[in-house]
Amino acid sequence: MIAIYPGSFDPITNGHLDLIQRGSRMFDRLIVSILRNDAKQPLFSVEERAEMLRDVVKVYPNVAVDSFEGLLVEHAAARSASVLLRGIRAISDYEYELQMALMNRRLAPGIETIFMMANESYSFISSRLVKEVLGLGGSITGLVPPTVEERLRRRMANSKTKGAN
To answer: Residue 48 and residue 30: Cα distance in Å, rounded?
Structure first.
């Protein structure tokens, strides 16, 4: 069984990594798919996010990294995936995810959405919040993998340097 775990992963957090690790045990193949959505003005390019993901998921032999644009269900069908894996952190996530799952079911009835609850120790983490905390000088240690933290610190430092010019 092949599953797709979609997201922007800008950057990948330990919450994402927890779902990947757990999903890798549930499915024969788990494809972590980065949404190409330049309207969100990501901090990292799709290529950079893919590189960071590949670095942290290399310990899971059945996990691959991919990217897509357009309809998720079309991407899933093209990869022969029958499951979409989605993480739920809070009730607010559920409302949005339910709408997406129902629309995806309407578009592709043969593809199921599985919701996985976030581990309670990661339930408050979001990529947006990680970037905000770091930008304000707070510690993000333990919220993202160490290699991702290094890249985030360099990127934020470069952004501040460019902004000062």
So the answer is: 20
- CA-CA distance, 101 to 111, in Å (whole number)? 10
How much is the pTM? 0.91
Please write the tens of the pLDDT for every residue from 82-136.
999 999 988 878 888 999 999 999 999 999 999 999 888 888 889 999 999 999 9
**pLDDT over threshold 80, residue 56:** yes
For the annotated catalytic residues, the residue numbers are 16, 40, 89, 127
CA atoms of 163 and 158, how far apart (whole Å): 8
81: left (phi over 0), alpha (psi -120 to 50) or beta: beta
Tokens 């999903």 locate to 23
8 A C-beta contact, residue 50 and residue 34: yes
